[in-house]
Fold this sequence. Notes:
Radius of gyration: 25 Å
Order of helices and strands: EHHHHHHHEEEEEEHEHEHEEEEHHHHEEH
Shape: globular
Strand order of the largest sheet: 7-6-2-8-9-13-12-11-10
Strand content: 15-25%
Mean pLDDT: 89
Low-confidence stretches: none
Amino acid sequence: MRVQATNSPSRFEVTTDGAGVVGHAGAALLRELADRLGLTRAFGWRVPGGRRRHLDAAVLRDLAVMLADGGDCLSDLAALQDQPELFGPVASTPTAWRVIERTAKDPNGLARLRAARAHARARAWTAGGDPAVELLVIDADATLVLAHSDAKQGAAGTYKHTFGFHPLLAYLDRGPAPGEPLAGLLRPGNAPAGGADDLIELVDLALAQLPATGRPVLVRSDSAGASTQLAWHLRDDQVGFSLGMPIDAHLREAILAQPEPAWTPAIDADGQARDGAEVCELTGWIDLHTWPEGTRVICRREDAHPGAQLRFSDHDGHRFQVFVTDQPDHDLARLELRHRQRARVEDRIRAAKATGLANLPFDRWRRNTVWLELVLAAQDLTVWAQALLLDGALAVAEPKTLRYRLLHTAGRIVRHARRTILRRQRSWPWAVELARAFARLRALPLRC
């Protein structure tokens, strides 16, 4: 029997005589955005040591751009170093390491990084990146970052029997658009998920990132944040709360005591009734004397998904979720929907892990705290680019999609009539979107 060959002949030749060709052309958009919004200038506090070829501010900016572009270690800075026609002179890996070490050793280094991000955020919001919402919602959540060596300072066993770190993160919920990173707190792997002191520190850092708008603020958390200490701290700051609550035997008894007419249909994001889900208020059934005045308890019951394993707190095929809040709204379904939407923070954390958080590359704790702040700065640049410069699907795209369509695309640098021009492939489906993004970027005032 004759078998037909499946190997197709080569249709092209490979040569090394090209000139002016660059990759990662779209990453230049983020680099210039950092300059336009003043992030680079804000990074550039004075440090001792005399004149240097590479300013620390430019190195920190390039590291943030490298992370947004998909890098996860210092050596990935080569993606920018190897293309001087596009990015100009970029620091070497040893130079970048020294900048991180100087920043980490500076007693105010981390605070200055955070202040630089807050400064750039205020400019981004003024330029049109302000989320058009009446209520600013901050989501706090913890995640695990694995370490594969006990030589990393602070790495420890986690509650999931893994080994690594247990950072806390806070994001501003921007609806279906990517959430805006506000704060991160590096913690050892054995840190408790619901440590009230850590949550309070995280919330304070997140609130310090918000520009002064006069709008009310709400903090959401899962049951790890169910702390009267946190609730009272937020009340003192005139910030609302919506915190998940673990279900114990007393709370389960109160849930099961509710008459059927007390349950009202839950709703989905489009306002339509959610199949198999109802909500009710338990405020009068629970002792809340240690909580701030006006605290309420709201419960959602929902039919268990097929194959789901029921817990002791479940009953008659229903799953229950409970949260406490001080919001005065009488629409229980709306309050429950708002709390349920905190699940979007899981997507934001997943995006952070795709932007350098999956790997804390240094052995010393102080350097990894700087790395975490640069990860947040990288997410900042991506979110601001999507809010200010992009439309449609690109404005809500995941990091992987955004890199494929814009950041990692190739181009050719040509010079004509004393101009330097980046030419994109005409047939690339998103070539026009990138050109439009650069045009919008250059309409912003320049603050290097």
